[in-house]
């Protein structure tokens, strides 16, 4: 028996990975966050699977579900929105499973920031403009930020910032970043990325907060701030440059021809 932490993707049911869908289809138990994971994904579960919405469960109750499935010999699909590697609360669940000796594995998913970049039709790293992306959030009363990871400190890097869980505090975000990025710095907010009700807002630090308020965006959104969002004049990458030396024979990723 194994607990599989599966990245369900940013919202659209067809953005789950092939591996994620196949794993989901063979698990007898599925735990999912009903407020975030699209219901269409549950159609991938076996018809007789036990479906548990964890929206109102605490960590002890979730762990109890894992243990009960383990004792029954049932594999568990633990669906998380986006990708389990960031802002997913997977680490604390893994720690509980380690403590009780229940095996687990992780199936990555499409993260929200990637879906937001796709909606904006932008590459977040652009030659000579920006090659660093910082994924972060802002301090809230329930979960403070570690020392040195406050927004003002990160903003001094000038790197492109992607902020999760911060749309409700957009005024604060703008206020802390203005001294480092300037009012004309491109900014965007994408809410419900990849879903039918997706909202895409484009602007600058000077006007993005007003747009967010006018659109009524308060959750399920990422804020992106950085010069690469508006980059138009930049050098082509070396990857496809005509000056780059290339092998005479085509590359075969499967190994040498036989």
TrEMBL record:
Residues in Tetrapyrrole methylase domain copies: 2-208
Superkingdom field: Bacteria
GO biological process, one term: methylation
Pfam family, one: TP_methylase
Gene3D superfamilies xref list: Cobalt-precorrin-4 Transmethylase, Domain 1 (3.40.1010.10), Methyltransferase, Cobalt-precorrin-4 Transmethylase, Domain 2 (3.30.950.10)
Record flagged with keyword Cell wall biogenesis/degradation: no
PANTHER family to which the protein is assigned, alphabetical: COBALT-PRECORRIN-4 C(11)-METHYLTRANSFERASE (PTHR45790:SF4), SIROHEME SYNTHASE-RELATED (PTHR45790)
Identification of the protein by name: Precorrin-4/cobalt-precorrin-4 C11-methyltransferase
UniProt source species: Streptomyces melanosporofaciens
């Amino acid at each position: 028996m194994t607990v599989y932490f599966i990245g369900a993707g940013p919202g659209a049911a067809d953005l789950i990975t092939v591996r994620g869908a196949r794993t989901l289809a063979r698990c007898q138990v599925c735990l999912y966050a009903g407020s975030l994971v699209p219901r269409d994904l549950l159609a991938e579960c076996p018809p007789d699977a036990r479906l548990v919405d964890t929206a109102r469960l605490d960590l002890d109750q979730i762990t109890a579900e894992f243990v009960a499935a383990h004792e029954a010999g049932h594999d568990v699909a633990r669906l998380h929105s986006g990708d389990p590697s960031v802002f997913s609360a997977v680490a604390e669940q893994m720690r509980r499973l380690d403590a009780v000796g229940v095996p687990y594995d992780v199936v990555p998913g499409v993260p929200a920031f990637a879906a937001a970049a796709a909606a904006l039709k932008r590459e977040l790293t652009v030659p000579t403009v920006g090659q660093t992306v910082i994924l972060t959030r802002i301090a809230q009363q329930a979960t403070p930020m570690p020392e040195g990871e406050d927004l003002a400190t990160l903003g001094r890097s000038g790197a492109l910032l992607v902020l999760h869980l911060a749309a409700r505090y957009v005024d604060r975000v703008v206020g802390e970043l203005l001294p480092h990025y300037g009012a004309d710095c491109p900014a965007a907010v994408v809410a419900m990325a990849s879903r039918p009700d997706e909202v895409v807002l484009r602007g600058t630090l000077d006007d993005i907060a007003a747009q967010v308020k006018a659109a009524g965006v308060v959750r399920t959104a990422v804020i992106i701030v950085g010069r690469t969002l508006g980059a138009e004049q930049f050098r082509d990458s070396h990857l496809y440059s005509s000056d780059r030396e290339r092998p005479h024979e085509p590359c075969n990723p499967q190994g040498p021809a036989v």
